[in-house]
Automatic annotation (TrEMBL):
PROSITE patterns: PROKAR_LIPOPROTEIN. It comes from the Bacteria. This is RagB/SusD family nutrient uptake outer membrane protein. Residues 1-22 form the signal peptide.
Length: 589
């Protein structure tokens, strides 16, 4: 991460206090998980450690928060593919809605989030006890991060742990989503005067700025009705409730905070939608709050979101490949019917000499002039972006360990599955499981599923590392929030205007004349729902969206109709066993 340079410390001190869960309340009893250099009591180091928890797998890896927010929805599924991705059923549990309190994904993400809470509390204590010039700013950022970790934990698990960081004898508190959401909103609003505006005090989109708080407040208000009535069987949430603060309703506050961002002039929509997810997006025009990633051999960024869909025989260089894991479902793919010309659906790559990789069987070769950064002169092959389906083409890796070449260029050939060598690499949008209730493919079926190539595959540091910053709040998402708020208030004209701003601001590649997306002429709830998906797919927003729109409980591919209690995950049994203050969420006893 870039936080080690933000605070001008040479190395990042990563540490955690055990007192958050320990029966003893003595704050002097600490465990340093790792100390990679400077004194862990350094306030800057403590705050950097709190930021670092955003990365390090939590919000940047497909097994992190992504697996809870996306694999449980129609946007993503990770099936067992022949001999791969069985892993005790932990991935299938997410989509088949069979998870229990000992599921490894559920437990691991609980641990990551509560560790983020702990690190934030530690940073608050460290900054409060210091006399550094940046005390007011660092304290506001630490409290903002605490609120973000608490909110995410309450969203996913319905409960979250908390202790007063300044009271060594403070008891452990168990916060509940329905009663804590209003306090979180008030807490973040109280931070606004002390947070830096983006670009001031050396801030950028990797810091919790005032603009990040605006995006966060809009998110909390958008989902406040769900938090207050999570298990409403009919999903008839009260989005018109009086706001926790200020005037008007929840939706009025969403409009207020999103408008502050949209009207600020600090951000603008990218005409090339996929620039938001490119390896050089650290200067992106839409990024409001993002996880700064950098291949710096200290905390190398994660390439997971790009790597997880790409097939093992899809090679960006002779040293890089995908892993043939996740795909999208037929249900989500079908929402794009009639919209395959939307600039957000798919984008073909053009090389500097004008060659297009069309991935349609007409390609013969592409230039070998693009070189993988910091490599031994390895040619770099660029796959197309967006939702990829149908027969796939690309370079072939020879037994010599090099890509197949023709006339000094990278040869493009039909591709076959690495672990089923006679099976054509044909990403079928349909998923034909032998048992419709179980996401399991036979070895010769492992090609199935349309793939999401939204995030650019960065080959610089091997398959696992990346320079791509991962957006948490970006301008495109802010427009969708405001559109939804307008719609829920009955202002369909304003809602459609915001959605059309997104549609028409994006342009297709020059192969298609750089044409902008087509404007909507009418809007209803289905159109709104689909448009949010078009803009935000694979950005960790789908589960909350499906719950708000009453779609999360519905049956789908390898997913039965489910009960409302599944709208939150169970508290890990291992936590309940040692922390008696926690009571298991309803339905999981």
């Amino acid at each position: 991460m870039k936080t080690n340079t933000i605070f001008n410390i040479k190395t990042l001190a990563i540490f955690s206090f055990i007192w958050l869960f320990a029966s003893c309340t003595n704050l002097d009893e600490v465990v340093l998980d790792e100390v990679l250099g400077e004194d862990a009591s350094n306030p800057a180091g403590a705050l950097a450690a709190a930021y670092d928890r955003l990365g390090d797998g939590t919000f940047v890896d497909h097994g992190g928060i992504f697996s809870l927010q996306e694999y449980t929805t129609d946007e993503a599924i990770l099936p067992t593919r022949g001999s791969d991705w069985g892993d005790g059923g932990k991935w299938r549990d997410m989509h088949e809605f069979t998870w229990k309190s000992d599921n490894a994904v559920v437990v691991d993400n609980w641990n990551k989030l509560t560790n983020g809470i702990t690190r934030s509390l530690t940073a608050i204590q460290s900054v409060e006890e210091s006399s550094i010039p940046e005390k007011k700013l660092f304290l506001a950022e630490a409290k903002g991060l605490l609120a973000y970790y608490l909110y995410t934990t309450l969203d996913l698990y319905g409960q979250a742990p908390y202790r007063d960081p300044m009271n060594p004898n403070a008891p452990l508190q168990i916060l509940k989503a329905d009663t804590q959401i209003d306090q979180l909103i008030k807490d973040v609003e109280a931070l606004l005067p002390d947070l830096a505006e983006m670009g001031t005090q050396q801030t950028h989109h990797g810091r919790f700025t005032r603009e990040a708080a605006y995006g966060f407040l809009a998110t909390m208000y958008l989902n406040r009705a769900v938090f207050k009535d999570r298990f409403n069987a009919s999903s008839s949430f009260n989005f018109t409730e009086a706001a926790a603060t200020g005037t008007g309703t929840d939706m009025d506050r969403v409009i207020y905070y999103t408008s502050l961002l949209i009207d600020s002039g600090k951000y603008s929509l990218e005409s090339d939608y996929f620039k938001n997810f490119a390896r050089d997006n650290d200067k992106g025009k839409e990024l409001i709050f993002a996880i700064s990633q950098k291949i710096d051999y200290i905390r190398n960024g994660s390439n997971s979101f790009a790597y997880v869909c790409m097939e093992r025989n899809q090679r960006t260089s002779a040293a890089n490949r995908g892993t043939n894991a996740a795909c999208t479902t037929p249900e989500f793919f079908a929402t794009w019917n009639g919209n395959h010309d939307d600039p957000r659906f798919q984008q073909k790559y053009q090389y500097a000499d004008g060659t297009w990789f069309k991935n349609d069987g007409t390609d013969v070769s592409v230039p070998a002039t693009d070189i993988v950064p910091k490599s031994a002169n390895l040619p770099w092959f660029h796959f197309n972006r967006g939702i990829e389906f149908g027969p796939q083409y690309g370079p072939i890796l020879l037994s010599s360990g090099s890509l197949e070449m023709v006339n000094g260029r990278i040869k493009v050939s039909p591709l076959y599955m690495e672990k089923s060598t006679t099976t054509r690499m044909d990403f079928t949008p349909s998923l034909t499981f032998k048992n419709p209730a179980q996401a399991v493919f036979a070895q010769n079926e492992i090609n199935q599923g349309a793939r999401i190539f939204k995030y650019e595959f960065d080959p610089e540091g091997g398959n696992g590392n990346s320079n791509v910053d991962i957006p948490l709040f970006r301008l495109g998402g802010i427009y969708t929030m405001r559109a939804e708020a307008y719609f829920r208030k009955g202002n369909t004209a304003q809602a459609m205007e915001d959605l059309n701003k997104l549609r028409t601001s994006r342009k297709r590649e020059s192969l298609y004349g750089s044409t902008p997306g087509k404007a909507l002429t009418a809007i209803d709830q289905t159109v709104l729902y689909n448009e949010i998906g078009f803009e935000l797919y694979w950005e960790l927003y789908r589960r909350p969206q499906m719950i708000r729109f009453g779609k999360f409980d519905l049956p789908g591919t390898a997913k039965p109709a489910s009960e409302p209690y599944r709208r939150v995950f169970p508290i890990p049994q291992s936590t309940i066993d040692v922390t008696k203050e926690f009571k298991q969420n309803q339905g999981y006893n």
